């Protein structure tokens, strides 16, 4: 699936079992994929197995498409292969029928820049296609009609080809993840704490990353950490961050790397979440997770998103989670307190900030410091040698130095991660032994 080179006009369609269909998110998704929205059709009824919507509503949909000159319809529902075919036969010639998950894959395809992101998109596309290939195979064998219901010529090897490609991509992603895990361990050994930003799209994660980051330090550490990215987009769009972006936080006492990851969206099927498991590993393997939510949304929306986020995070995550109520500049103080109280069961002791305006970011940095694993304090005594000066320099780079006394001996007092303290002791011990 490739991005269209020209803007397509589309009609939004959505069916709900009962009540009123909310199309805000699917409209945002369509705009994120560069579609121009020309109209909307909704329906409250049970699903029609042949057309998803009622057949009469599909006829009305066809009329709206023709009247508005649209060339695509985007459903905020998952369509089966036969429903897609049947609907297409009712619409003007050339109209593309796109369900919710095909639209998401289009967006992912447009945003994928790195090899890892491209592989994950390809994996998700193949997982989307596999059941359709299996359906073609099943019908072709049963009815002995390769072109049954217009689903296309049945290729006996296609189903196995997809499975082989899925296996190949998984292997390559596993290899990439091994490299990234090794890099994470190197960061920890170098004294860095790892903080991950999680949450739904458009909650303001990328804006918060820019607010927390220390740009100068990123440039200074490019050689040590080649994957640090000094640019993190913060547009008011969905999926501006598909892969991961890592930057160094602006904190005095600790060396912290903050990683922004792909945003959650509602009602994602398991196969799609699983396709991006490699990206989510940056969250699962962090020392602390900041779960960012948009405080300007309704309590019901925030509660639903918190529940879904917790289900995703607590499945494999062992790090503490701090909820960040972002976009406080969009609501007044009374509303913030009302929502904080209503959500206390899901978000105990959250931090309310405005990433855009920089409000209360200092409190968030303090909370990050408090929630991260405790530093160990150490006091080392070394002989006054050139080698000792090198150790002092190394400790300055990897820990928080409180005091250094240069006399007949070098005495250094500092705080750092346990692994850094252990390495410091080892380096100092070697110098003492050598001078004995």
Overview of this protein structure:
This protein is of the alpha/beta class and 436 residues long. It has four domains: 8-108, Rossmann fold, CATH 3.40.50.11060; 112-176; 190-371, Rossmann fold, CATH 3.40.50; 376-435, 2-Layer Sandwich (Ribosomal Protein S8, Chain: A, domain 1). It has helices spanning 24-32, 55-68, 81-90, 100-111, 115-143, 158-189, 205-212, 215-220, 270-275, 277-284, 299-314, 333-342, 361-371, 386-398, 418-435; strands spanning 8-16, 35-44, 72-75, 96-98, 192-199, 245-248, 255-260, 288-294, 321-326, 351-352, 376-383, 400-406, 409-416. The strands form three sheets. Strands 6-7-5-8-9-10 form a six-stranded mixed β-sheet, sandwiched between helices. It has a four-stranded parallel β-sheet with strand order 2-1-3-4, with helices on both faces. Helix 3 (81-90) links the parallel strand 3 (72-75) and strand 4. Helix 1 packs parallel to helix 4 (100-111), helix 4 runs antiparallel to helix 5 and helix 14 (386-398) packs antiparallel against helix 15 (418-435). The longest helix has 32 residues, at 158-189.
């Amino acid at each position: 699936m490739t991005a269209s080179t020209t803007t397509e006009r589309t009609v939004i369609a959505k069916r709900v079992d009962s009540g009123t269909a909310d199309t805000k998110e699917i409209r945002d998704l369509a705009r994120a994929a560069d579609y121009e929205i020309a109209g909307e059709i909704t329906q409250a009824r049970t699903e029609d197995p042949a057309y998803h919507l009622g057949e009469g509503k599909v006829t009305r949909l066809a009329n709206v498409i023709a009247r508005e000159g649209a060339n695509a319809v985007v459903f905020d529902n998952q369509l089966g292969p036969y429903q897609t075919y049947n609907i297409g036969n009712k619409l003007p010639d050339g109209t593309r029928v796109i369900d919710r998950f095909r639209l998401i894959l289009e967006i992912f395809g447009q945003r994928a820049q790195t090899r890892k992101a491209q592989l994950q998109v390809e994996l998700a596309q193949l997982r989307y296609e596999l059941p359709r290939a299996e359906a073609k195979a099943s019908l072709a064998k049963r009815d002995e009609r390769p072109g049954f219901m217009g689903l296309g010529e049945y290729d006996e090897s296609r189903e196995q080809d997809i499975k082989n490609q899925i296996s190949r991509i998984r292997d390559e992603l596993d290899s990439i993840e091994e490299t990234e895990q090794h890099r994470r361990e190197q960061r920890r050994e170098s004294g860095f704490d790892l903080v991950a930003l999680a949450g739904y799209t458009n909650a303001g994660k990328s804006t918060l990353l820019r607010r927390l980051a220390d740009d100068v330090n990123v440039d200074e550490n490019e050689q040590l950490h080649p994957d640090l990215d000094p640019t993190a987009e913060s547009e008011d769009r969905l999926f501006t961050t598909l892969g991961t972006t890592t930057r160094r936080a602006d904190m005095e006492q600790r060396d912290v790397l903050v990683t922004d990851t792909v945003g959650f969206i509602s009602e994602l099927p398991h196969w799609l979440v699983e396709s991006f498991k490699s990206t989510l590993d940056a969250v699962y393997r962090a020392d602390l997770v900041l779960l960012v939510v948009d405080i300007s949304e309704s309590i019901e929306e925030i509660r639903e998103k918190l529940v879904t986020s917790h289900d995703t995070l607590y499945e494999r995550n062992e790090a503490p989670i701090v909820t960040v109520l972002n976009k406080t500049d969009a609501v007044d103080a009374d509303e913030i307190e009302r929502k904080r109280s209503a959500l206390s069961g899901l978000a105990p002791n959250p931090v309310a900030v405005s990433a855009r305006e920089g409000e209360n970011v200092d409190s968030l940095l303090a909370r990050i410091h408090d929630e991260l694993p405790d530093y160990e304090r150490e006091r080392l005594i070394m002989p006054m040698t050139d080698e000792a000066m090198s150790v002092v320099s190394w400790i300055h780079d990897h820990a928080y130095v409180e005091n250094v006394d240069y006399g007949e001996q070098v005495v250094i007092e500092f705080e750092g991660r346990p692994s850094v303290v252990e390495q410091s002791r080892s380096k100092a011990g070697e110098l003492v032994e050598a001078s004995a």
